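Below is one protein, fold included:
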Amino acid sequence: MKRYEYHPYHIQRVQTLLSSDYATRVSFCRTMLEKHQEDPNFFDRILWSDESACKRDGYLNLHNIHSWQLENPHEIREDRSQHQFMVNLWTEIHNGCIIGPFELPATLNAEIYLDLLQNHLPILLEDVPLESRRRMWLQQDGCPAHYGRAVRAYLDETFANRLIGRQGPVFWPSRSPDLNPLVFLLGKTNSISR
């Protein structure tokens, strides 16, 4: 194979998309490009948010882990434990700065999410200038906890027409974690936690 200049490539695992997802993703990207053309600093105004459950036992692909040595060091990695734990982290990125993470209970519901927005997010944003907070857009995915009645009322009041989400003026497409820059950070955090 090397003689024919073939190279080994690994298949990437990605989330399954429905046929209807492609049009909504393209529409979202067009909307974001329009916002950027209207305001070149638009992306700096977005508070990108996401949560990630970090577990002790996660998927481990041994094929991608190598140890280059002269002799076999017989390295091991403990992979299973009778003692389980899970940490649910909520993190944001705003204007290139990481905000958080903030630890959430294992199960997120609308009441807990509203408490986060009302009581903890303002503290997490203390170092962000007031004018930036007034112009800030909130991005959130389609998690059901993000759309309880009280949460919606609070978001409508606090972020007015500055919401990127399932019910915002800018629609966040379903099954689109790859459009959120936090996916890369939280993926790394999750792999480190194991």
The first strand starts at residue 46 and ends at 55. Residues 21-52+85-193 form a domain with the Nucleotidyltransferase; domain 5 fold (CATH 3.30.420.10). Helices lie at 21-38, 110-124, 130-134, 149-159, 182-193. The chain has one domain: 21-52+85-193.
